[in-house]
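quick one
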Amino acid sequence: MTVKIAVLPGDGIGPEIVREAVKVIDALNEVFGLGAECEEALIGGAGFDGAGDPYPEQTRRLAKAADAVLLGAVGGPKWESLDKPLRPEAGLLRIREDLSLFANYRPAKVHRQLLDASTLKPEVIEGVDILVVRELVGGIYFGRPRGWEKDGRERRAFNTMVYGESEVRRIARKAFEAARLRQGRVCSVEKANVLEVSELWRQIVTEVHEREFSDVALEHMYVDNAAMQLIRHPRQFDVIVTGNLFGDILSDEASMLTGSIGMLPSASIGEHHAMYEPIHGSAPDIAGQNRANPLATILSVAMMLRYSLERPDLADKVEQAVERVLDDGLRTADLAFDGGHAVSCTAMGDAVAQRLRMLGE
Ligand code: IPM
Ligand code: MG
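structure w/ magnesium ion:
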């Protein structure tokens, strides 16, 4: 049996990190008979350059036909002056919307080998294991009306933060379901002291909890407090469920608990499709220098194995291989503090693939 993976490297460091993740998929094919076929397509700035569209039709067809999508990153200064719909970010938002990938899972787990790589004290971050469940196809990212207008001599711009009950209900369910497989605690984050959209969010989350998930512990927290608590006492969190914008911000913050944003994978899942991508961006400042950390993308492959390809056994193997390279002291530049030796992106990918082969022997 073959599984089809649509591979969308994108921009900046995207092609470099994805190349290393594909090495890992190759190793899984060779050693464990995964039977995955990878096919590449353009997205983001690369889509604009190659096909005049940040989400080209050919990419769309490939993604829809695939069992899973693996994405690198999009964006860069080269495309910043384009009209909004042609910018790389528009391509990413369109593929998320087109595939209805409403549930975005962003695990922030502290690897004990990297305790010293975080800017926070080891005793604060030790044992941190948080799952941010971010709503991905609604909220202020997609709400209408949006746009620009001119009011006399002054320009104004506006966006709309809007959620419907059904959108909140489906993401709440995903968070509660995830919590049942973890420590059984959900923290719902919003700004209900100010925003109506958050009042609705809180009501629906409470209702879903009472009716379907009363075995899970539920807490509500305002987003400003949540931002503070994440730094003050991150171990208090198990699953955080939140809307699109707050989830974007809090998941970047949570990543710094783990030492580097270069470590965080993600899964974006809908009813029929799923896409896997590192949470970090395209890092144009280090693109093409073979310095990026491919581990977030490699760990995204592990999430793909678990959630889309029904191979939790191989997901474990990939995660073990990553643990081994960290145990062996390999660090890319983002993780090598205090002048420690840093390995290249390709060396890191090779090392993970090699450890994976050893696990298969
Ligand atoms: C992310 C990114 C994207 C987002 C950008 C690139 C549009 O920051 O995946 O977190 O805001 O969702
Ligand atoms: Mg982000």
